[in-house]
Specification:
The complex is a heterodimer of chains A (about 250) and B (about 260). Chain A is built from nine helices and ten strands. With about 250 residues, chain A is an alpha/beta fold. Chain A has two domains: about 130 residues, Rossmann fold (3-Layer(aba) Sandwich); about 60 residues, no CATH class. The longest helix of chain B has about 40 residues. Classes of the chains: A alpha/beta (about 250), B mainly alpha (about 260).
Chain lengths: ~250, ~260
């Protein structure tokens, strides 16, 4: 199995709070890896470590074999252009229309002509089920549509990997199902890697190739969906069953 | 001992803040020097930050010029030097009132707007979204605001100079019966063109202060809505304090011997 990325003995703290301690995790190339764990466990921080938005206090982060913790900002910018990032609240620029939001990485990072950009933006929005919304502003769309627009912006540059931060949180079951399918389809279309941070176990069971569970700053379980579901680890079982009783303190 | 600790912490914080602003300014100047400028965004910002400040700058400078003339004209006439009022008003407007007043007003309106907008973008992850797309927030957001203010604040200052002189002239005529001819002749004699240019140079420095402090405070926002409020207040207070400090320093350097 080729690796797309590796977190090696990573420690991260926010002020006095230790978020990750000697955390190691492999992200398999071409697979969907889902990261689960309690709220505030540091799942989103893993995504920010993977595209260099956050540097670990100690430890190393490798992406395609390159240590990005030592990279210059210039090189990190080049790296980020190869990684799509769909944010939890989509983070669309509210001063721009949906079309301008999706077109932004193409306008700023490529030499494509206006006509080509328009065509690609339209196709990408179409592929996430958002036809004819180019001229609308983010505030005019529903939560599910905004999420899909965020997906479109993340994948429009044809990235090698896409990072999804809580893609289905706060959405109704139908839209959740639509977005879950979309993540799988986009991964197949891009033929790349996806890392998904989520609490939504139903979606994770559908889309994940691998699941990693984060608890108290370390990965306590890693494996395929079946392996995780059958895990003897009481922490994993308590989390999957949503039980109040067990080793995870409430 | 606690007092010393607090003083030490405050000093370190002040140097860290100054270093952060200087680093951001250096970054912005690097993009400007490389002509990596977003023209449309800069023009939009010039309209939002400059043109939309017109009414508040006109009103504040008009009434300040009027009150300055009101206070000085009666006194000057009673001492038999009413012919100097025009010079006094114009001299003060070009050197101090115009640049300072427009800068303080713009800091209150525009500095706050910059900090609030960028702060909101931080808390809604839009800044991280820019970075994740391989785009520099400094180039995308700070440079257009800096350039817009550097162009618009001197223009607003020229307008403030003119409006305060005209307001002063009207009050001098109505309350102290100083003729327009006498007022204008005195104003022309008292203010060499050089002084106007020096006043405009001050406004360029103030524009840099407002844009950079607003941007830095905005980009340093932490927390939610409360953080944005704190950043906005901090931007206005810090900008106004720095404008007053730099105004003294610049007046000393530019006009110290005249």
């Amino acid at each position: 199995m080729a690796l797309w990325a590796r977190l090696d003995d990573v420690c991260v703290r926010y002020g006095p709070k230790i978020v990750m301690q000697n955390l190691s995790l492999d992200i398999v190339e071409g697979a969907i890896t889902c990261i689960i764990g309690l709220s505030g466990a540091g799942k989103s921080t893993i995504l920010r470590l993977l595209n260099g938005l956050k540097k670990p206090d100690t430890g190393r982060v490798f992406v395609r074999g390159k240590d990005i913790t030592e990279m210059r900002e210039r090189d990190l910018i080049d790296l980020r252009r190869t990684i799509g990032f769909a944010f939890q609240f989509s983070a669309l620029f509210d001063s721009l229309t949906i079309g301008e939001n999706v077109a932004l990485p193409l306008r700023e990072n490529t030499k494509m002509h206006d006509g080509e950009i328009r065509k690609l933006v339209s196709e990408t929005l179409d592929s996430v089920g958002l036809a004819h919304v180019e001229e609308r502003s983010p505030s005019e769309l529903s939560g599910g549509m905004v999420k899909r627009a965020g997906f479109a912006r993340a994948v429009v540059s044809n990235p090698a990997a896409v990072l999804y931060d809580e893609p289905t949180t706060g959405l109704d079951p139908i839209i959740t199902h639509v977005l879950t399918d979309l993540i799988v389809k986009l991964r197949e279309k891009l033929n790349g890697t996806a890392v998904v941070v989520s609490h939504d176990l139903e979606s994770i069971y559908i889309m994940a190739d691998y699941i990693a569970m984060l608890f108290e700053g370390a990965i306590v379980a890693y494996g395929t969906v079946d392996e995780i579901r059958r895990s003897p680890n009481p922490i994993v079982q308590q989390f999957l069953q949503g039980s109040e009783v067990g080793p995870i303190p409430i | 001992m606690k007092v010393f600790e607090e003083v030490g912490r405050g000093t370190i914080g002040a140097f860290a803040y100054a270093g952060g602003v200087a680093e951001l300014l250096g970054d912005a100047l690097r993009f400007i020097a490389g002509l990596r400028i977003r023209v449309r965004e800069t023009l939009d910002q010039a309209f939002l930050l400059g043109v939309q400040s017109l009414s508040i700058v006109i009103l504040t400078s008009l009434f300040t010029g009027m009150v300055f003339s009101l206070e000085s004209a009666n006194q000057a006439v009673s001492y038999g030097v009413g012919n100097l009022v025009g010079g006094l008003v114009a001299f003060t407007a070009a050197r101090e009132l115009g640049p300072m007043l427009s800068a303080v007003v713009v800091a209150g309106r525009t500095g706050a707007a910059i900090a609030a907008e960028l702060g909101s973008m931080v808390v809604t992850e839009q800044i991280e979204a820019l970075q994740s797309l391989g785009l520099s927030p400094t180039r995308m957001l700070v440079v257009p605001r800096l350039l817009a203010l550097v162009v618009m604040l001197p223009l607003l200052t020229v307008l403030a100079d003119i409006v305060s002189i005209v307001g002063g002239m009207w009050v001098a005529g109505v309350y102290a019966h100083i003729s327009q001819e006498s007022f204008i002749t005195s104003a022309r004699a008292a203010v060499p063109f050089d002084d106007v240019l020096k006043g405009l140079f001050k406004s360029v420095v103030f524009a840099v202060i407002i844009a950079m402090i607003g941007s830095y405070q905005g980009l340093q926002t932490r927390g939610g809505a409360a953080g944005v409020g704190k950043a906005t207040t901090g931007a206005v207070v810090t900008s106004i304090i720095l404008i007053f400090m730099f105004n003294f320093a610049l007046s000393y350097v530019l006009f110290g011997s005249s």
